[in-house]
């Protein structure tokens, strides 16, 4: 039986609502933070990364792109700019987005917005990590 519940909401939709969770690891601006039962109440800024939550002994992944996490009374609420469950990620589309961003960053002659291209690359990499399509599991 899970000790906590996890809700993930974006401006467009609710990704998870009261999902049972035994543990949650969220990507925060200064690293990753683990949340277990009876965690102290808190609010933190999220960074682009992979949120992991343990359910029935298995960690599940969600790609998140910024926002906030709130912990209160064994309820974890994530308000994310965008979020995508690992099983919903179109890996081919994410790989293509990664390839396009890398190509834009390599092209020194092109007049591109490097900040946007770097952000696009980070988002694509996070989606691929969440989907398990990369060799490593770092946030």
Describe the fold and architecture.
This protein has 139 residues and is α+β, with helices and mostly antiparallel strands. It folds into 2 domains: 4-86, F0F1 ATP synthase delta/epsilon subunit, N-terminal (ATP Synthase, domain 1, Sandwich), CATH 2.60.15.10; 90-130, Single alpha-helices involved in coiled-coils or other helix-helix interfaces (Up-down Bundle), CATH 1.20.5. Helix content is 24%, strand content 45%. The chain is built from 2 helices and 8 strands, in the order ββββββββαα. It has helices spanning 91-106, 114-130, and strands at 4-9, 14-21, 23-28, 31-35, 42-55, 58-72, 75-80, 83-85. Strands 1, 2, 3, 4, 5, 6, 7 and 8 form an 8-stranded mixed β-sheet that branches. Helix 1 (91-106) packs antiparallel against helix 2. The two termini are 27 Å apart. Belongs to the ATPase epsilon chain family. F-type ATPases have 2 components, CF(1) - the catalytic core - and CF(0) - the membrane proton channel. CF(1) has five subunits: alpha(3), beta(3), gamma(1), delta(1), epsilon(1). CF(0) has three main subunits: a, b and c. This is ATP synthase epsilon chain.
- Unreliable residue runs: none
Compute the average pLDDT. Answer: 92
* CATH architectural type of the largest domain: Sandwich
Rounded radius of gyration (Å): 16 Å
Tally of helical segments: 2
Give the distance, in angstroms, between the N- and C-terminal Cα atoms.
Answer: 27 Å
Tally of discrete structural domains = 2
CATH homologous superfamily caption of the largest domain: F0F1 ATP synthase delta/epsilon subunit, N-terminal
Structural class label: alpha+beta
- The percent of residues in helical segments reads 10-25%
**Can you count the beta strands?**
8
Main sheet makeup: 8 strands, mixed
**β content, as a range?**
over 45%
Shape: elongated
Order of helices and strands: EEEEEEEEHH
CATH class of the largest domain: Mainly Beta
Under CATH, the topology of the largest domain can be stated as ATP Synthase, domain 1
GO cellular component, one term: plasma membrane
Keywords: ATP synthesis, Cell membrane, CF(1), Hydrogen ion transport, Ion transport, Membrane, Transport
Function: Produces ATP from ADP in the presence of a proton gradient across the membrane.
Main location: membrane
């Amino acid at each position: 039986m899970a000790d906590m519940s996890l809700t993930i909401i974006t401006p467009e939709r609710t990704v998870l609502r009261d999902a049972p969770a035994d543990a949650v690891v969220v990507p925060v601006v200064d690293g990753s933070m683990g949340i277990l039962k009876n965690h102290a109440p808190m609010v933190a800024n999220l960074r682009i990364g992979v949120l992991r939550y343990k359910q029935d002994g298995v960690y599940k992944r969600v790609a998140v792109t910024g926002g906030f996490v709130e912990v209160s009374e064994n309820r974890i609420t994530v308000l994310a700019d965008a979020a995508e469950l690992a099983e919903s990620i179109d890996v081919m589309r994410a790989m293509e987005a990664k390839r396009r961003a890398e190509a834009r960053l390599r092209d020194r002659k092109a007049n591109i917005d490097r900040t946007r291209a770097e952000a696009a690359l980070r988002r694509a990499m996070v989606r691929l990590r969440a989907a398990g399509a990369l060799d490593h599991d770092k946030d």
